[in-house]
Amino acid sequence: MEGNQAVWYCYRQRAGPLVKECRALRPRYLPEEPVEDRRDKAQLKRYKHGGFDRRQVDRLEIRLALLPQGTHYTLSYGEEHLPGDFAGVRRSWRAFMGRVGRWRGGQPLDYVYAIEGLHGDHRFHIHFGCSYLDLSPAEVGYLWRNGGVEDEPVLLTHPVRDARTGEWSTVCDGGYRRLAEYLNKERTDGVWIPIGRHPWGCSKSLNAKVPPVERWRDTCGDIEIPTSSVWARRRSLQNDFGAYNYATWIEAPDGLSY
Predict the structure, then answer these.
(1) 29 vs 244, which has greater pLDDT?
(2) Nearest to 246 by CA among 222, 219, 220
(3) Which residues contact 116 (CB under 8 A, 6 or more apart)?
(4) 54-101, pLDDT tens digit by residue?
(5) If both were cysteines, with which of 21, 150, 247, 248 could 74 make a disulfide (CB 3.0 to 4.6 Å apart)?
(6) Bridge-partner residues for 141, per DSSP?
């Protein structure tokens, strides 16, 4: 990285089979630009996480990928158990997690959850995600005693046959991102969901497993996605504050197919 070669600041975040990478060409200071722009550029240069934890969607996507064979449960309420307010939902959620803890003999559980009530018929319900290996649909159905339970894999997969070679492979829908966007769609409104409440939460044990961001410098801004990936997405951005290349992909882990 000497001479006139451009220096790209590279960041990579791994979480289970999910890999997120960013390569940034940092902006140069211009003598005629406003003080505010110079301050914003200085902040970008100091940022050390590659944008992986700036948005709630990105933070949740990474945590969902840390759940092996992650399963998404929707916990609904029957008429006789439907809480009248958000506080009532919180009480039923704590009671459910208490039963889960006793059922598991006090072992910590990695999970994410979100309380919703704004869309559809405005009935409170809870989204709950954990590893299938920790809690099966039958166990969740038994421990949730307030109504129905629906479940689906976080990663929805299907087989694809190569028209040229005739070989079969497994691809997925990028479910970590899909579910993360879905669970961040609602915002607090002060009536159904109190102002200041985050759209989702997760266990301390899951937070502790988020790996550190890898950081290095390179003279190339291209991001190479492995051909064995079962899902991938790219995007690029260029403006007065630099050039940025982003890529996210899901590697083919053992046991991906459900």
Answers:
(1) 244
(2) 222
(3) 124, 125, 126, 127, 186, 193
(4) 788 999 999 999 999 999 999 999 999 999 888 999 999 999 999 999
(5) 150
(6) none
